[in-house]
Amino acid sequence: MYLCAMNCRQFRILVVVWVALCTLTTPFFAQTATNTSGETTLVAATNPFEIQARLPKVVRAASSGGKVAGPVNPFDVVAHRAPGVTLDLSTEQAPRFQPFSIFPKGGGMQNSTLVGILLALIGFLTFSVSVNRGSVGKAWRGFMNDGALTLLQREAYGLIGLTPYYLLYVNFLLNAAFFTFLVTRYFSDGAYNNFRFLLFCLLGAVFVFLFKHVLLEVVRRLYPVEKEVQRYSFLILVFNCVLGLFLLPFNLVLTFSPEPFQAPLMFWTLGLISVFYTYRALRALLIGSKFLSGDLFHFLLYLCTVEAAPVLFLIKTAQWQAN
């Protein structure tokens, strides 16, 4: 009982001392400011331990001039304000990323030039077929039948045996570049209607398919899939040879067709190309089906990096340009 009474007495003494200290130290933590009308405003004093240089400008002005009432504690929550660089980048005046900005703009390509290019394409296709007239029929049979593709791969051995198909492959690259030029010229309202951009399209087509074959060669040398990769590479060769035969007449029609019919023809041709590559993907899946059971992860990794990633990159680039 005695200890309890002593504790209560000590607690009361502490409370009295605390209230007295709060009363005596109030003038040191608050100061009054009198405005021009004679009214007195309570303004919070500045903490002497605060680092003034790190305080916001508004708070420093308030603490120095005494015009704005409020605490100037550096731990106070201040409304976020984006930095100047962020504001500049977020405005509409900021430059947009346009992938086609590196290509030469300008029109001026005459129809006579397009006629000359188409005549050159027809002449090259005629030369490619005349080197080995049976190569077109064999390529078509290999396109339709997997067994015919195996027989064709055995016959087309060495540089002499592959030369007719290489020529048809070059015909495909030329027509693919010309088709890309026509599509870009139509959807850009003639902004890229010049011969230099046509050369860029040709270089781009050569780079894309050459990179694909080089990547397949690297995979063939690194992993024990030599026969499968050689067959898949030859499958790409045959399919592109056949696709080049289809692209030439469509390029002729798209070049000289009236403007109302150009857009439907372009989308129809793009749909045909999609069917070609979907069919090629199914044929390629048969080649790699033996790896699905044991190496499913590596097979899916190859599909994502080599097959799907380039297509998605091209689609994203077109979206950037359209926006």
Structural write-up:
By secondary structure, the protein is mainly α. It has a domain at 118-316. It has 11 helices and 2 strands, in the order αββαααααααααα. The protein has helices spanning 2-29, 57-65, 84-90, 111-131, 134-144, 146-155, 158-187, 195-222, 226-256, 259-287, 296-322, and strands at residues 30-34, 40-44. A two-stranded antiparallel ribbon has the order 1-2. A hairpin with a 5-residue loop joins strand 1 and strand 2 (40-44). Helix 4 (111-131) runs antiparallel to helix 9, helix 8 packs antiparallel against helix 9 and helix 9 (226-256) runs antiparallel to helix 10 (259-287). It is elongated and about 115 Å long.
Features:
two-stranded antiparallel ribbon; mainly alpha; 323 residues; disordered N terminus
Question: What is the helix content?
Answer: over 70%
Shape type: elongated
* Total helical segments: 11
Would you list the SSEs in sequence order as H and E?
Answer: HEEHHHHHHHHHH
Radius of gyration: 38 Å
Structural class: mainly alpha
The largest pleated sheet is described as: 2 strands, antiparallel
Unreliable stretches covering 5 or more consecutive residues: 1-6, 26-45, 66-70
Q: Strand share of the residues?
A: under 5%
Sheet with most strands: strand arrangement: 1-2
Mean pLDDT: 76
Number of E-type strands: 2
CA(first)-CA(last) distance? 84 Å
SSE blueprint:
Blueprint: H1 2-29, E1 30-34, E2 40-44, H2 57-65, H3 84-90, H4 111-131, H5 134-144, H6 146-155, H7 158-187, H8 195-222, H9 226-256, H10 259-287, H11 296-322
Antiparallel strand pairs: 1-2
Helix pairs in contact: 4-7, 4-9, 5-6, 5-9, 7-8, 7-9, 8-9, 9-10
